[in-house]
Protein: GST C-terminal domain-containing protein
Organism: Durusdinium trenchii
Amino acid sequence: MSGSCSPCEEQDSHNTAWPSFPELCRAAAGRLPADGRLNAAGEWHFVCWEVPIDDPSHHDQLFVESPRAERTALDETDVQGAFKRVNSVWRNVIEEDGQFAPEPNRYHLYVALACPWADGALAALFMPPDCDRRGASKTKGLEDCIGYSVVHPTWQRSRPEDPQDQHHGWTFRQPRDAPLSNGLGHGSFECDDALVPDSVNGAKFVRDIYEKAGDTGGKYSTPLLWDKKQNTIVNNESMDILRMFNSKFNKWAKMPELDLFPASLEADCEAANAWIYPNINNGVYRCGFAKSQEAYDIAAQDLAGALSKAEELLSKQRYVCGDTFTYMDLRLFMTLIRFDAVYVVYFKTNMGTIEMNFPNLLEYCKDQGCLSGAGHGKGHQHAAHQDALLHLTSRSEQVRSDP
Ligand SMILES: N[C@@H](CCC(=O)N[C@@H](CS)C(=O)NCC(=O)O)C(=O)O
């Protein structure tokens, strides 16, 4: 095979067309290619690269200079500078008679409230006192069945004792501990009452929990569902976790009848997800984590179009799929509620604000009143990704300079 590899999503290293990455990794004395990751099974996956892969003299370019590059979402970019989210690695399922059986008080959820994916999973657990404006519950009421921990919103160096290891990630603190600054030493972010330290593993960092389960490749993301019985990770994909919370713990749920994944609306939800997820939920990240102007412009255009489409849709119906609240609403809400406070500034999604420019989306958000949302969002985004974005020209700046 000759020539450069075009941008590609995760591919399997065992594909015979590609050089053997495990061998390359070994040959590089433990150094890992910059554009790849080890999955939980210890197999090497790469995201993309642009060197002639048939020429061994170029293989050095596949390796990072530091002994070890711990991955975060900020590294998940293709050669055009577009954010390409890498799939979650831990995908076990909770099922009767399976390795992970449904049981009360067996599982523990780790979340960052700043994270819309994790906050959605957490919101599904809780039964708030007075639900929404029209009195309908939107959560399962599993708070007595599944425990949880909440990280501090400001990423910290997870191995500060190792000068070679520059990974920054989620950390646990007690409410009223000393405030934290970000990795560049900026800011002072309080340890508020929303923080819940890790009572299960006693971990200082989310990374520690992944490593306890044998995952040393990262990324060390939330949500993360932990099995206290087998001392391992069940799953770190919010959609899977939501699905399991929806149906596997109904014996203990206060609202077993609430179905966020109704079979009758499956096709409608999937059709909505096909444009809402890439353009809005992940769309804000595609703007925020873009590393080229072109990638940002495409993402911002997709996002603006999808917000207008959602605005139009919700002028006609209460929920994304009609009259019924589904997981699509939970996920859309979790993005919209962060939009003005966080994404407009930090991810440069400033094609408008929900409050000023999208009246139906604003009403829609108010309608979801009982859901928790956006806790810690501002503190995290403004403090964590200190090197993202700063060189890109935002949508509103382009409009200003091009009247
Ligand atoms: N696919 C995952 C994505 C979760 C995710 O991206 N979490 C982010 C916070 S919003 C995270 O923890 N990132 C850690 C990192 O990038 O190191 C899901 O939906 O559960």
